[in-house]
Design goal:
Layout: H1 7-31, H2 46-58, E1 61-63, E2 69-71, H3 83-104, H4 108-113, E3 118-120, E4 123-125, H5 134-137, E5 151-153, E6 156-161, E7 164-169, H6 194-209, H7 213-229, H8 234-247, H9 256-281, H10 288-291, E8 306-308, E9 316-318, H11 343-355, H12 362-371, H13 381-401, E10 407-408, E11 415-416, H14 419-426, H15 429-442, H16 449-455, H17 468-478, E12 487-489, E13 492-494, H18 496-507, E14 519-520, E15 527-528, H19 529-537, H20 566-580, E16 592-593, H21 598-604, H22 606-619, E17 623-624, E18 627-628, E19 632-639, E20 643-650, E21 655-659, H23 669-686, E22 691-692, H24 708-721, H25 734-747
Parallel strand pairs: 16-19, 21-22
Antiparallel strand pairs: 1-2, 3-4, 5-6, 6-7, 8-9, 10-11, 12-13, 14-15, 17-18, 19-20, 20-21
Helix pairs in contact: 1-2, 1-3, 6-7, 6-8, 7-9, 8-9, 11-12, 11-13, 17-18, 20-24, 21-22
């Protein structure tokens, strides 16, 4: 297609398409008075755009091997970035003129038959009617309908079955007589999360293409087999499958319960299928029996049969009656017979197995020392059993394959084959659990320092929990906040307040961002490290300043890693409500903050959402038989799940207004719609009629793309603690306010005038 378009036709049609687009933008702007600017406000003049188009069309040259320079006179080069867009615009004008010609000549019914036709670049799909003739396009087209009446279009096989349309996935590579390797092998140098991501992406594609569950299951099964043939683990496919179901969990048409059950059966069958196919390919090899020695096999009646390999050998081998069990099965927590033993018996059994093994780990030694003097809580026993089973499995594999475990994890003291295996281990839950167990066992008083020095690796970063974390927090809360400073310059954030917060995090052995499971006890309740990490990752620390020594591992992020969650805004709201709770009965003008979960619940169950508001008002003694005593309500809302705004309802004046951090005085249409939904629902519940009215608060404007949640928190603090201030700009930078928010949350208090 690209190489057949005439240059003059390209220039004429593209110019006509640009003219029509500009006319449409002007008409749309005149009809919709809510928009402050036209959608083509940043588009250059038509003449300037055509200068670029003409340059691309006229200046394509080819240099041959014989040294001849040739200019392309017909068509566009397929490798040009703009070629698809230019070709689409060229064909659009021809198609538009064709339809307009039918309508002008009175052939309206024939024009309507083309309504369902679709074209993507050079592929046209028609339903019972042919597209415009080659004369209109200036190009030749060929009909590709198969002999059985079906059509292959853009990776989809479309056919008619029993009077209905059936759409399935068309695998073009499967039609070729040779094998096509389309996905990386599990041993390739690719990220660990890529297999599950690839599988999830293909599932989304299948969901779009297939119009029956049967076709979707068939495509998913073929994809799973291809991934397993590339030696990927079933757990990676399960991870991608679960992510797919979670993404589309609101699809009420599909029965996801039956799909989950089917996928478990399918992935088990596919594992056997791939394993069986591999086994048959090795049947003729001389070393086949040696390859499968020590492999446990299960017979068809699920009973195990064992025979001696040699008369004086302790190694046994299973008689292969059926296909072997897939080797990618995960180790369960308590399903193993050994895992059901008492902890002391289990540890002694594992230690006996390790005596003859030269690769005993520091973790094994620590467990042995601990078991002689202490009893592990029952809730931790399954996790320790799992780690010991996995450790013994790695050591057995190293012994059988004649290699050593050279890499040691500095957090959980486990040994691995190499640094690549260790890097994958650091991203798994087993590492965090092992770290927790090491810290817990090391903290016991009846383990002396001398014993600990022998069992803990010299470069381990394990620290022993003590009473420092509580005393550090108490000391910080007792210190006046005004005596602590925070500075922001071109290099980043520093100061005594930064040093004090870093000391707290260091004392409780928080190693961000990997410590999200633990929590920080403080007067306001538990604060989880994932909560703290989001606050700190939006801060650029001055690592050359000594006050930031405890934040050297914090990476500055301006993306999703530093976006506020609803828990951050709710925590600020709870602190303010506790601070001003006793003042509501005397000062009804104080705003009441409603939880951020109100708006999602309103979309799902309006009555339950309004019950939340009613309960909040009753707890604050602002609702009685006479009505609502409060005058203003504040609703934090996450619009489209990507931007925080603040909506204010003025009950006294019966008005509402959304504060958008990007433009507090000029909210977007989405902001106004969200505010209108809240105002209407609240008005119907309590008998009010609200109108949109501009508020005179000229709040500061958000300049970046990730601090909208922070600005909403600052708006709330300003409206509650000092509504007469009406700041046009805040006195500190967003990074400083993130540090202050963390300090206020730890102290469970926000001072008046803190903004």
């Amino acid at each position: 297609m690209y190489t057949g378009l005439e240059h003059e036709r390209i220039k004429k049609n593209v110019q006509e398409a640009i003219r029509e687009a500009k006319e449409y933008a002007a008409e749309l702007f005149s009809r919709d008075t809510r928009n402050n600017y036209r959608i083509d406000y940043d588009l250059n003049d038509t003449s300037k755009l055509m200068d670029h188009v003409n340059f691309i069309v006229d200046n394509t040259y080819f240099y041959t091997k014989t040294g001849i320079l040739k200019q392309q006179k017909i068509g566009l080069p397929m490798g040009t970035n703009s070629a698809p867009e230019i070709a689409n615009l060229t064909c659009y004008v021809d198609e538009r003129d064709f339809i307009d010609g039918l309508i002008t000549s009175g052939q309206t019914d024939e024009a309507k038959e083309h309504a369902d036709n679709f074209r993507l670049i050079d592929d046209v799909l028609g339903w019972g009617i042919e597209p415009p003739s080659p004369l209109h396009y200036g190009l030749e087209w060929k009909e590709t309908t198969l002999a059985d009446g079906s059509v292959v279009y853009l990776g989809a096989h479309i056919k008619k079955i029993d009077g209905r349309i059936d759409i399935s996935v068309f695998d073009k590579a499967a039609e070729w007589p040779f094998l096509v390797l389309r996905y990386p092998h599990s041993q390739s140098n690719v990220p660990y999360h890529q297999p599950s991501g690839v599988f999830q992406g293909q599932l989304v594609r299948y969901r779009i293409i297939c119009n029956t569950i049967k076709n979707f299951k068939h495509a998913t099964t073929q994809m799973a087999i291809r991934m397993l043939q590339r030696d990927h683990k079933p757990v990676s496919l399960i991870k991608g499958w679960n992510a797919h179901l979670t993404k589309f969990n609101n699809d009420r048409i599909t029965n996801y319960t039956s799909l989950r059950q089917w996928f478990r059966r399918m992935i088990k069958w596919a594992s056997y299928f791939v394993k069986s196919d591999r086994d048959k390919s090795h049947l003729n090899e001389k070393s086949f029996k040696q390859k499968w020695k020590n492999k446990q096999c299960i017979t068809q009646n699920e009973t195990k049969q064992w025979v001696k390999k040699h008369e004086h050998s302790k190694t046994t081998q299973c008689t292969a009656i059926s296909d072997p069990v897939p080797m990618h099965k995960e180790v369960p927590l308590q399903k193993s017979a050994k895992a059901e033993l008492h902890l002391d018996e289990f540890i002694l059994a594992k230690m006996e197995e390790s005596k003859t093994n030269s690769q005993t780990t520091s973790f094994d030694q620590l467990v042995t020392t601990f078991s002689h003097h202490n009893q592990l809580p029952k809730v931790l026993q399954p996790h320790l059993n799992r780690l010991l089973l996995l450790s013994n499995k790695r050591k057995t594999e190293a012994k059988n394959r004649n290699f050593t475990l050279e890499a040691t994890c500095d957090q959980c003291l486990q040994k691995y084959k190499d640094l690549m295996s260790l890097k994958k281990h650091h991203k798994q839950k087993d590492c965090n659990m092992g770290k927790f167990l090491v810290q817990w066992m090391s903290s016991k008083q009846n383990l002396s320092t001398l014993q600990l020095d022998k069992v803990i690796h010299s470069n381990s970063t394990v620290t022993f929990p003590n009473q420092k974390k509580e005393s550090a927090i108490e000391k910080f809360c007792a210190t006046p906040l005004s005596s602590l400073s925070c500075f922001h310059n071109a290099k980043g954030i520093s100061g005594s307040l930064v040093y004090a917060l870093g000391g707290i995090i260091s004392d409780i052995n928080c190693k961000l961002p990997n410590g999200s499971e633990n929590y920080l006890p403080n007067p306001a309740g538990r604060i989880y490290y994932g909560f703290i990490k989001i606050l700190l990752q939006g801060v650029k620390f001055d690592h050359h300043h000594p006050s930031t020594v405890n934040f050297r591992n914090i990476s500055y992020s301006t993306g999703i890693d530093s976006w506020f969650y609803g828990s951050h805004i709710d925590r600020i709201g709870n602190i303010l409500m506790r601070k001003t709770k006793s003042s509501f009965r005397y000062n009804s003008s104080l705003p009441i903050i409603i939880t951020e979960a109100y708006f999602p619940k309103l979309l799902e169950n309006p009555q339950e959402a309004n019950d939340w508001v009613r309960q909040t008002l009753m707890e604050l003694e602002c609702l009685d038989d006479e009505g609502i005593l409060a005058e203003r309500l504040l609703f934090p809302v996450n619009v489209n799940s990507n931007h925080w705004i603040l909506i204010e309802l003025n009950i006294k004046d019966q008005t509402y207004w959304p504060y958008d951090p990007f433009s507090p005085a000029h909210p977007s249409s989405s902001d106004i719609v969200a505010a209108e939904l809240i105002a209407n629902a609240f008005g119907e519940e309590f008998g009010f009629h609200f109108n949109l009215q501009f508020c005179d608060y000229d709040f500061p404007v958000q300049k970046d793309g990730f601090n909208c949640g922070l600005f909403v928190c600052l708006y709330i603090i300003s409206l509650v603690l000092d509504p007469s201030l009406k700041p046009k700009r805040f006195g500190k930078s967003p990074m400083e306010y993130r540090i202050l928010l963390l300090a206020w949350i730890i102290r469970n208090d926000i001072p008046t005038g803190g903004i």
